[in-house]
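Dear H.,

Thanks for agreeing to be a second pair of eyes. The structure we're designing against is below in token form, covering all 545 positions.
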């Protein structure tokens, strides 16, 4: 048997006998760097602090008791969502039950492999061996991706397709994913279409549909996804994208049906249940929304990343349904079972305000909303949906300053910023043009300060900081011409002073195209085009395109 003594392995299994059996099997292949986790929580804590080559995870982490913790699928969903395992991690799911929903659920989260018990040491090591061999071929590209060198990784994938014909299709897939991640949807779609010309691979159809969706070709996306599901009804990601495509077309009822079909096939995906609850609530199907949100709260109960917003969603559905007693119970559960944090405080105050509103205590509700606004300033990672809902509640209670404060906080959030158009739109939709005008003026002032700050950085020779500052401004005001011109000029100064960087040069071209659409024929645009061409010529780059 081949030796894999260099591998580090994490065994995630609550059963001590099974942990012992796996340990012995791994020892027979000279694997001795083995650690254990007995639950999803201990696994997450270990993976937060340490990287493992191989993760062997039992599907049934509750030892048959659904109330005792997450299952392996829910754990894998958390690990991927919170980026605790990267592309190079080998994650193998182990299950003793060939239950269709479990196998489908595990497969849709793309573990490296899944193994049905009972299995032999030879069978297990064959699976691990195949995964290790594959990873060795892909590792140089994974390392480039980890360093943020996506464009170099794309070129390396292209070369690897020719030198590793065995994995040519997988390299093409990775190349398409990288084009998608860098925003080049048209090129990603071309790779998927080329792949599909050979044979109808499900992942390529799904990838093509995602590109079509990103390009706002919703009819095409729906057609691609429906054809995919006709031939592969268990391709679960297709249901999610199909639902989003119908939502984008304004057909929320159809989106709800698609999600309900998906949940009936694979019932444990928390993110899908959450999406179903949101769509059901939007269509007025409060009973379906309550059921979905209740499942989310229940299934996420043992997650290390419990989100108090799930409780808010459930309270909202119960309040809308008129079930005050159960809504009150959900708030008590939130206070009792979630760790204290600014996010939990925000959600507790918002939930309490909803309950006070429906019971006729408007003054107390307004006080809770003000408390929520205070806590928002210290919170991290709150969804824009929740914060916009808080803004609307504040406006309803004539808390104008609180509403404006939340919107400005959203504008200044580096993780989930909203654009100036979105910020102003919140007030316009509420019929408050006066507040929209005031917030717009305040945002213009903040953007001017950032432009001035970036100009000062550039004069001091800190060109990278100047570009980074203007990138922040662009995320908030992508259509602000003053910021656009300043950003391109800062990029060109950096390229002139520090040398040509292809991704940065491409970005300058993209921003110039945006300016051309907004300010065609402007003398300032003509001057900028000449400056851009001059920088390209300086480094011998063709300007014929």
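And this is the sequence the design step returned. I haven't edited it by hand at all.
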């Amino acid at each position: 048997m081949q030796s894999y003594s260099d591998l580090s392995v994490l065994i995630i299994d609550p059963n001590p006998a099974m942990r012992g059996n796996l340990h012995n099997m791994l020892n027979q292949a000279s694997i001795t760097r083995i650690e254990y986790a007995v639950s999803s929580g201990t696994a997450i804590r270990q993976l937060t602090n340490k990287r493992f080559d191989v993760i062997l995870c039992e599907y049934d982490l509750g030892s048959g008791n659904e109330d005792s913790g997450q299952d392996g699928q829910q754990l894998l969903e958390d690990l991927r969502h919170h980026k605790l395992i990267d592309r190079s991690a080998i994650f193998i799911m182990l299950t003793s039950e060939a239950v269709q929903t479990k196998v489908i659920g595990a497969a849709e989260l793309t573990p490296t492999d899944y193994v049905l018990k009972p299995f032999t040491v030879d069978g297990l090591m064959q699976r691990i061996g195949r995964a290790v061999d594959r990873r060795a071929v892909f590792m140089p590209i994974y390392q480039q991706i980890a360093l943020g060198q996506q464009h170099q990784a794309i070129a390396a994938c292209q070369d690897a397709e020719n030198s590793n014909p065995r994995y040519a299709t997988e390299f093409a897939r990775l190349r398409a994913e990288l084009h998608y991640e860098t925003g080049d949807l048209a090129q990603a779609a071309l790779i998927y279409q080329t792949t599909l010309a050979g044979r109808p691979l499900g992942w390529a159809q799904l990838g093509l549909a995602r590109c079509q969706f990103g390009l706002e070709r919703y009819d095409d996306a729906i057609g691609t996804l429906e054809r995919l599901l006709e031939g592969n009804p268990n391709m679960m990601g297709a249901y999610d994208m199909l639902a989003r495509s119908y939502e984008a077309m304004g057909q929320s009822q159809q989106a709800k049906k698609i999600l309900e079909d998906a949940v009936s096939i694979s019932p444990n995906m928390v993110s899908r249940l959450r999406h179903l609850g949101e769509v059901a609530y939007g269509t007025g199907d409060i009973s379906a929304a309550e059921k979905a949100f209740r499942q989310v709260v229940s299934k996420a109960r043992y997650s290390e990343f419990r989100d108090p917003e799930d409780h808010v969603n459930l309270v909202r559905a119960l309040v809308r349904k008129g079930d005050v007693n159960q809504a009150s119970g959900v708030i008590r559960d939130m206070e009792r079972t979630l760790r204290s944090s600014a996010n939990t405080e925000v959600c507790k105050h918002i939930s309490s305000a909803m309950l006070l509103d429906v019971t006729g205590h408007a003054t107390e509700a307004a006080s809770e909303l003000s408390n929520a606004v205070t806590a928002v300033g210290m919170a991290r990672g709150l969804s824009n949906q929740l914060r916009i809902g808080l803004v609307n509640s504040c406006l309803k209670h004539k808390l104008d300053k609180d509403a404006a404060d939340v919107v400005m906080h959203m504008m200044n959030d580096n993780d989930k910023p909203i654009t100036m158009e979105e910020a102003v739109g919140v007030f316009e939709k509420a019929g408050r043009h006066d507040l929209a005008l005031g917030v717009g003026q305040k945002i213009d002032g903040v953007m001017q300060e950032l432009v001035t700050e970036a100009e000062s950085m550039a004069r001091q020779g800190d060109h990278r900081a100047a570009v980074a500052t203007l990138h922040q401004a662009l995320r908030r005001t992508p259509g602000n011409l003053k910021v656009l011109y300043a950003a391109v000029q800062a990029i060109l100064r950096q390229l002139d002073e520090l040398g040509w960087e292809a991704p940065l040069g491409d970005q300058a071209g993209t921003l110039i195209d945006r300016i051309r659409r907004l300010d065609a024929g402007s003398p300032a645009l003509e001057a900028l085009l000449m400056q851009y061409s001059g920088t390209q010529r300086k480094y011998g780059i063709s300007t014929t395109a």
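Two observations from my side: Residues 148-250 form a domain with the Serine Threonine Protein Phosphatase 5, Tetratricopeptide repeat fold (CATH 1.25.40.10). The chain is about 70% helix and 5% strand.

Warmly,
E.
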